[in-house]
Amino acid sequence: MSQPHALPATACNQPTFISRQALDDKAWDACVTASPQRIVYGYTWYLDAVLPVPDWKWLGLVLPDKRGGYQAVLPVPLRRKKLAGVTCGWVVHQPFFCQFLTVFTVQSIDVMIFLRAVQQRFRYGSRFNLCFQEVLPTHDTSTIRPLITHVLDLSVGYETLSKNYSRDRTQNLRRAQKADWTVTESTDVEPLLTLFRANHADSINGGVADWSYSMLRALCGTLNQRGLATIRYAVCQGRIEAGALFIREGNRIIYLFNAASATGRKRNARTLLIDQVIREYAAKPYLFDFESPEKPSIRDFYRSFGAVDEPYYSLQWSRLTGVEQLMVRIRRLFLK
């Protein structure tokens, strides 16, 4: 994802916070679409879907243009939160199914004026994932953690892409192709959620709240309405054993969500599902984004397709008062 060159702060007007209700959706989405940073996570309708009320919301940090539109925008996701029993009100927090955000801009600006404004407005940022080409200096109370997703440039064509598969991935793909799989396409996400509940939810630290499933259902409905979602299932002997949800928007195909039974995993169903999408869009100007988690085994799986690292950064900061910090420390001692 390309990022504008930084200009001196004096060359830019200061951005303004605008409530979600007061934003001009058309102007915002037009800015995202026209920007070189374009990605589905930045659209108003997508943010509305992944930030459900009442404990989540988002604000827009906007730099208007002279024609009444927006020349640069930054979504600021918020969550009502307590830290170890201490109420902090609204804190900056990255939502699920939104791997990273950025400053979407149609011209070169100083992105630091946006980050400074967010940190000045909100005393606590528990996790704000941002995609920039370089690690940016921030407030003294900030920490920046580098993260990576993995992407494939599909424009090079399938012959080149398949040659970059690891030896194990090539062998497992052949096994999957010889297996008795039938791949079906659907708009129904429920079988995918059922697979996830039965085979993956228990391994998630802290469990998976019911509202997360409701949110994904609503997001899939929105994506289906806009023709952006592809849901595919691998079926064996009449049973769905694996499934995957892909989003195609702009020049990016995102592998957003997936699940598989023990049979699906053993018989490499997800390898087959991913390879089919890669084949379908090979030699076209798309990036395939694996939306990688931090688990090493999953990263290795994605790298076995020849995917390369694409960096982004998780920003955290705290300006809690001395009393609040003391209360947090005391609370954590009692929780140990």
From TrEMBL:
Residues 171-289 form the BioF2-like acetyltransferase domain. PANTHER family: LIPID II:GLYCINE GLYCYLTRANSFERASE. This is GNAT family N-acetyltransferase.
